[in-house]
């Protein structure tokens, strides 16, 4: 697989199915979230050798606050613990971690965890790992538009794109959703305008390198036309033909 992907890729993943993974084993949902962290560690390590330079994952949505309080606080604990354990390994592997999402309603402990991890890994360049946490696509667009309006900047596709949370790394090429659901659930609504979509039946804790490779294989077989004709894309006609 390594070396077969010609260009650096931006892959986005909706990591769904942790709760069902746990329920199938008669475990509490939180056990599924813990196992989900292990799956993410595996995939982060797999990215550079597959030509992936940016990995953007959906870890906690704006709407996930509506879950039972014990699950929400369990997720916060898992995040803080995972960061304290994993940041040294991200450093070793040259991974820059960035958190994407609102910060104002996070606890001081969680906020500090995010900020410390970002500061510690800021100069790494082997892989950019964007963790969408307390993130919603609608929040992203409204926040960006409000920023531009405040600054008196004209709102255009270019200025809005540049004000969105992922402006530092461009749009995803491939969006994977695990857990057998076929919806976006308010993830990157603007940025996935031309992403290729791949839906995996695997629950996120079961997702591994081989399923990632299946997604990449499928991605490579797609023709991305961006509104043009197939002949234009394959270079068989002049662009004005
Ligand atoms: C995804 O798994 C993780 C979060 C949304 C935090 P879920 O917790 O949604 O798992 P299912 O979809 O209930 O199985
Ligand atoms: C999307 O999964 C959010 C994350 C994976 C973090 P959800 O489980 O929250 O999505 P819905 O509720 O099934 O649409
Ligand atoms: Mg879910």
Structure description:
This protein has 241 residues and is an alpha/beta fold. The protein has one domain (10-234): Undecaprenyl pyrophosphate synthetase (3-Layer(aba) Sandwich). The protein has 8 helices and 6 strands. It has helices spanning 18-24, 29-46, 69-92, 108-121, 137-150, 157-163, 209-221, 230-234; strands spanning 9-14, 52-61, 95-100, 127-135, 174-177, 196-199. A 6-stranded parallel beta sheet has the order 3-4-2-1-5-6, sandwiched between helices. Helix 4 links the parallel strand 3 (95-100) and strand 4. The model is unreliable at 1-5 (pLDDT under 50). The site of magnesium ion has 2 residues, from loops.
Question: Got a strand count?
Answer: 6
Bound molecules: 3-methylbut-3-enyl trihydrogen diphosphate, magnesium ion
Order of strands side by side in the largest beta sheet?
Answer: 3-4-2-1-5-6
Mean pLDDT comes to 95
Largest sheet: 6 strands, parallel
State Rg: 19 Å
- CATH architectural arrangement: 3-Layer(aba) Sandwich
Oligomer: single chain
| CATH domain topology | Undecaprenyl pyrophosphate synthetase
- SS field, number of helical segments: 8
Counted up, domains total 1
Head-to-tail CA distance between termini: 37 Å
Briefly summarize what is shown.
The chain is an alpha/beta fold and about 240 residues long. The chain contains eight helices and six strands; from the N terminus they run E-H-H-E-H-E-H-E-H-H-E-E-H-H. The protein has helices spanning about 20-25, 30-45, 70-90, 110-120, 135-150, 155-165, 210-220, 230-235, and strands spanning about 10-15, 50-60, 95-100, 125-135, 175, 195-200.
């Amino acid at each position: 697989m390594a070396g077969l992907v010609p260009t650096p890729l931006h892959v986005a993943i909706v990591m769904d199915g942790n709760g069902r993974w746990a329920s199938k084993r008669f475990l509490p949902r939180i056990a599924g979230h813990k196992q989900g962290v292990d799956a993410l560690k595996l995939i982060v390590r797999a990215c550079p050798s597959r030509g992936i330079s940016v990995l953007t994952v959906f870890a906690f949505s704006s709407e996930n606050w509506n879950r039972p309080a014990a699950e929400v606080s369990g997720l916060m604990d898992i995040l803080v613990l995972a960061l304290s354990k994993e940041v040294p390994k991200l450093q070793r592997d040259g991974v820059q971690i960035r958190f994407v999402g609102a910060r104002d309603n996070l606890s001081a402990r969680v906020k500090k965890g995010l900020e410390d991890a970002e500061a510690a890994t800021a100069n790494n360049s082997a892989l950019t790992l964007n963790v969408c946490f307390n993130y919603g696509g609608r929040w992203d667009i409204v926040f960006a538009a409000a920023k531009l309006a405040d600054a008196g900047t004209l709102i255009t596709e270019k200025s809005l794109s540049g004000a969105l949370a992922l402006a530092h790394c461009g749009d995803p090429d491939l969006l994977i959703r695990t857990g057998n659901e076929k919806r976006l659930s308010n993830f990157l609504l603007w940025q996935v305008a031309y992403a290729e979509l791949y839906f995996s039946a695997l629950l996120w804790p079961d997702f591994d390198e081989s399923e990632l490779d299946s997604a990449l294989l499928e991605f490579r077989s797609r023709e991305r036309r961006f509104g043009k004709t197939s002949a234009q894309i394959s270079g068989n006609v002049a662009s004005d033909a």
